[in-house]
Amino acid sequence: MRNSSVNFRRLLPCLFACFWVAACAKAQTNAPTVAPVKAQPIYEQCAPLNTGTGADDAVAKAIAALKSQDAKARAQAAGQLAAACDRRAVEPLIDVLNDADLAVRLAAIDALGKLGDPTSVDPLVGLIGDPEWRVRLALVSALASFKTFNARNMVLNGIANPSDHVIKEEADLRVRCAAILTCNQLKDPSYSRKAILFVYNFLKMPEPNLRAIAEQTMLELKNTRNGVNELVAILKNDHNPELRRWSALWLGKIGGDAARQALEFAAGNESDEGVKAVAADALKQIK
What we know:
mainly alpha; Leucine-rich Repeat Variant; 2 domains; 15 helices; 0% strand
């Protein structure tokens, strides 16, 4: 009897792992189909900005057009200034960030992100609480394009991070997941790991439609610069065995050589029997 009890205790981690994999697989099977969430483009910003002086040149005319009564003309002017690489455009574009017309606001955000003048970071950050999801989505590209901690940190902790805000709408979660994927596109990988762990929490949401968006975001990590590498690092180095099991499960779903190699190592060398069992099961999906 004693030997049976000991053997059962030894089997507990594997039994838990099998139950955990089955539960996650069931959740994945029952998830509704959703449109893909993608990383947003990161701009090659103007460096440095020029400083024109002509009163009748194209830049001066576009700046003047930002005050037009026609919203379409204002939006077109902002689009023209995005490609001007002229310092004179920065302040007038900041002035129209709160334009009554959404298209104008989006064009101004896009233009300031492409121009890259550091004085526009704080005004852009000031829009993060905007209730219009398209504004927040535009901010992902604009702020991520600045190679400064303040701007990129706000993409991570201001847009991707749910904080204490309860997510109830798909559009809100889509913006956050787009920010997470964009953080994983940055050459600086220091923003990537934390961004992925936000999705770990999104996957626990009770609403099936929101969980489906989170699941699709996990699969999309394979198309980012850092996503798979970060999941591999979690599997290899994280102290929390639950996170290691989670990482192994998703590496199996994502696939690829890096995932396969990490799972092979974990299946043979992992100290936690539950993680080892999940890694072995995930490896079968790839093979």
